[in-house]
Design goal:
Layout (H helix, E strand, L loop, with lengths): L1 H14 L5 H8 L18 H11 L12 H4 L48 H6 L8 H10 L1 H11 L7 H17 L7 H6 L8 H11 L18 E2 L16 H10 L15 H8 L10 E2 L21 H10 L21 H12 L14 H9 L1
Antiparallel strand pairs: 1-2
The protein binds heme C (2 copies).
Length: about 375
């Protein structure tokens, strides 16, 4: 009895983490995570558009070899990632597949932010020679020749013949974006904790949270309910296969962003003169952008290994080790993120930080959103 009491006293001594009022203010700024509306896509929350988009997301006919769909690299059970360092489409790619869960919250899309709208993304991927390698005209004719898709399309957008091919390509992209917008996974144990349930996360996770918002300095880039500043930095992770840095990241993306066919300021946007479009118009290319990548959201991060833009780090332990030692830090040509210093963490601190990151895992969205609707319908018909 006495020993039990002693053990529990000791455990409490090591464990109990309390937060000051100013720390609580910071913690409350991290939850809840709610999607902002995207004015550039009028179909963003249209249910029928999302259903059409879901059909297209799982449709392998949209690739030149009939074997690749969006779900090949964004696998629902893997929190819409593929578990590979770099993805494999028609040909191998050189970047890691981010989750599309909660993707609608992003300010910029892709690791280098070369797109300023969510719906600017799908048609690029379908037409990309290494990804799905299919022209927009072929993709549109697949829809037109398919009874189910054709009917859904007409219901949402009206007849294809009433629009130009490029306008239809934008509609196709907007329907997939509507599906992705419906994929939210942002209600995690951490949110329950912030909402007042003190037992929703462990004492270890609370210590990790404390480190995250104080000595860890993580908050300087991973802040707000989505745990990202929406900006671009280099954290010095070496390239996947060693050697010098080759991927110019944000730097190379600026030209693409300005020329983007389906951008916020394009003729296909429903908010051509809005804030997103204006920022893109005035953005300048800076030397410091060379080798910088978007600060990823940390929501569901425990489910989306491997990590970093080329999946260079296999586990959260490796990520934490990197921030702790910065041992293999590679500096992009022009700058070094001066705000990063080795944290020299103790084993306990590393364990706690990981426990905290694990509390950001929310359940997957509704089962009905996770499968190919066509397969489900076929099963029902049989
Ligand atoms: C061959 C694998 C592959 C296929 C197929 C694929 N993706 Fe991706 N996806 C990726 C990779 C890799 C990235 C990151 C690319 C980059 O940053 O340059 C990405 C990025 C994205 C993003 C940006 C997410 C973010 O956080 O910025 C979205 C959205 C997305 N894909 C949706 C789709 C859709 C929709 C399709 C089908 C039309 C699709 N993907 C097909 C691998 C794939
Ligand atoms: C200078 C800004 C900055 C700071 C400070 C920072 N990060 Fe990051 N973090 C980033 C960027 C940028 C990336 C992506 C880098 C890349 O892909 O090359 C990243 C990637 C990550 C990833 C991988 C996520 C994924 O999906 O691949 C994790 C986990 C992470 N950071 C956690 C942390 C933690 C924990 C701290 C504090 C110890 C921290 N970060 C501090 C900017 C920062």
């Amino acid at each position: 009895m006495l020993t039990l009491l002693c053990i529990s006293l000791i455990a409490q001594d090591v464990g109990a983490q309390s937060f000051s009022e100013s720390e609580w203010q910071i913690i409350r700024s991290l939850s809840p995570a709610v999607l902002q509306k995207d004015a550039t896509n009028a179909f963003e929350t249209n249910k029928e558009a999302a259903t059409l988009g879901q059909h297209l997301f799982f449709d392998k006919r949209l690739s030149s070899n009939g074997e690749v769909s969006c779900a090949t690299c964004h696998i629902p059970e893997k929190y819409f990632t593929d578990g590979l360092s770099v993805s494999q489409g028609i040909k191998p790619l050189d970047r890691n597949a981010p989750s599309v869960l909660n993707a609608a919250h992003q300010r910029w899309f892709f690791w280098d932010g070369r797109t300023d709208t969510l719906w600017g993304q799908p048609i690029q991927t379908i037409e990309h020679p290494s990804e799905m390698n299919m022209s927009r005209s072929e993709a549109l004719s697949i829809i037109q020749q398919d009874d189910v898709l054709h009917k859904q399309w007409n219901n949402v957008f009206g007849a294809m013949e009433s629009r130009t091919e490029d306008e239809n390509a934008a509609m196709l992209s907007k329907s997939i974006a509507a599906y992705i917008t419906s994929l939210s996974a942002a209600n995690a144990p951490f949110d329950a904790f912030v909402n007042g349930d003190n037992s929703a996360i462990s004492e270890s996770a609370k210590r990790g949270l404390h480190f995250f918002i104080t000595d860890g300095g993580c908050l300087r880039c991973h802040f707000g309910p989505w745990f990202t500043d929406g900006s671009f930095h280099s954290v010095g992770v070496p390239p996947l296969n060693g050697g010098p840095l080759k991927d110019s990241g944000r730097y190379g993306a600026i030209d693409q962003l300005k020329q983007a066919e389906f951008g916020a300021g394009s003729e296909f946007s429903e908010d051509k003169n809005g804030m997103r479009a204006t920022i893109t118009k005035h953005i300048a290319k800076r030397k410091d952008d060379w080798g910088a990548f978007r600060t990823p959201s940390l929501r569901n991060v425990a489910k989306t290994s491997p990590f970093m833009h080329a999946g260079q780090l296999a586990t959260l332990d490796e990520v934490i080790e990197h921030y702790s030692t910065l041992e293999n830090f590679v500096s992009a040509d022009h700058h070094r993120e001066t705000i990063l210093i080795p944290l020299n963490m103790t084993e306990q601190q590393k364990e706690d930080l990981k426990a905290f990151l694990e509390t950001l895992t929310a359940p997957l969205p509704d089962e009905a959103l996770l499968t190919d609707p066509r397969q489900v319908n076929l099963e029902h018909a049989q």
